[in-house]
């Protein structure tokens, strides 16, 4: 399949490479072209415009930063809807607004539009083991499932347009609680004079075990804040979930508290660090 890929960031680069390894013809575009450096050596075509990237693609995938970036990439005169061929499959894998996903589906009637945010971070992107949460028409999901399988292992159809984004909001809400709890546990261990790594060995294989405990708690102990997922993007995701609930006149206290913690870190210059830098709040 001829695939266009837009967004070559921490995760997008690895996802595009996995599609190429699976035998697809892949072209990429990124607003900052320098991030595409080295991809041509892997057999991927680097394009200088969205139009060049998408105009003859059978399927187009996007994973960009914020909802405003999604709107620009899809709805501008130089964007996807203006330049993709009719009948192509178009998949936004950005964590974005459920309302925007529905809007794109309603506007892009000449195409097969899906929302398919992912979870698993840079590790899952590299290993092709992402969880992929898909909203849109079921027959479109079925058609693209073999393509999704080049990037992920847990590929779930949720329902109509916007359902993938709402599921990703559930994912981020759950992460908010677990990563904050992992940070507090590591801070507690240090405060009472325990060795953090010994504590991790003691608790991470029992009821306290989680992906965050296995992958991010050790980084917290080593002050390793290399971003597998940026704080600034996690803030964006949590705000999307918060705003969705506020539109229903409801609030989620754990989400709101963790969002406050991350906004505090961002105000102190840590927005480009990984989410594990939440431990800095306790320092």
Automatic annotation (TrEMBL):
The 3-hydroxyisobutyrate dehydrogenase-like NAD-binding domain extends over: 162-282
As recorded in UniProt, coiled-coil segments are none
- Listed Pfam families: NAD_binding_11 (PF14833), NAD_binding_2 (PF03446)
- Which UniProt keywords are listed? NAD, Oxidoreductase
Query: Does the UniProt entry include the keyword Oxidoreductase?
Result: yes
Q: Which SUPFAM superfamilies match?
A: 6-phosphogluconate dehydrogenase C-terminal domain-like, NAD(P)-binding Rossmann-fold domains
Per the database record, which ranges form the 6-phosphogluconate dehydrogenase NADP-binding domain? 2-159
Spell out the family assignment given in the record's similarity comment: Belongs to the HIBADH-related family.
Name of the featured protein: NAD(P)-dependent oxidoreductase
């Amino acid at each position: 399949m001829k695939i266009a890929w837009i967004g070559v960031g921490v995760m997008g680069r690895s996802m595009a490479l996995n599609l190429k390894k699976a035998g697809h013809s892949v072209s990429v575009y990124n607003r900052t072209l320098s991030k595409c450096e080295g991809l041509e050596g892997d057999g991927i075509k680097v394009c200088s415009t969205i139009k060049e990237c998408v105009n003859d693609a059978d399927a187009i995938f996007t994973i960009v930063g914020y909802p405003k970036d999604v709107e620009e990439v899809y709805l501008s005169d130089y964007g996807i809807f203006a330049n993709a061929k009719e009948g192509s499959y178009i998949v936004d894998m950005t964590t974005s607004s459920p309302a925007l996903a529905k809007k794109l589906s309603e506007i892009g009637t000449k195409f097969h539009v899906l929302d398919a945010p992912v979870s698993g971070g840079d590790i899952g992107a590299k290993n092709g083991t992402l969880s992929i949460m898909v909203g849109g028409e079921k027959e479109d999901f079925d058609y693209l499932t073999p393509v999704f399988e080049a990037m992920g292992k847990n590929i779930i159809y949720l329902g109509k347009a916007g359902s993938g984004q709402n599921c990703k909001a559930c994912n981020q809400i759950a992460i908010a609680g677990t990563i904050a709890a992992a940070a507090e546990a590591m801070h507690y261990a240090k405060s009472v004079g325990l060795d953090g790594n010994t504590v991790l060995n003691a608790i991470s294989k029992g009821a306290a075990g989680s992906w965050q405990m296995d992958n991010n708690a050790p980084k917290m102990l080593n002050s390793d804040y290399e971003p597998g997922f940026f704080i600034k993007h996690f803030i964006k995701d949590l705000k999307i979930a918060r705003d969705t609930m506020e539109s229903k006149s409801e609030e989620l206290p754990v989400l709101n508290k963790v969002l406050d913690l991350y906004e505090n870190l961002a105000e102190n210059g840590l927005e480009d660090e990984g989410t594990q830098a939440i431990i800095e709040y306790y320092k």
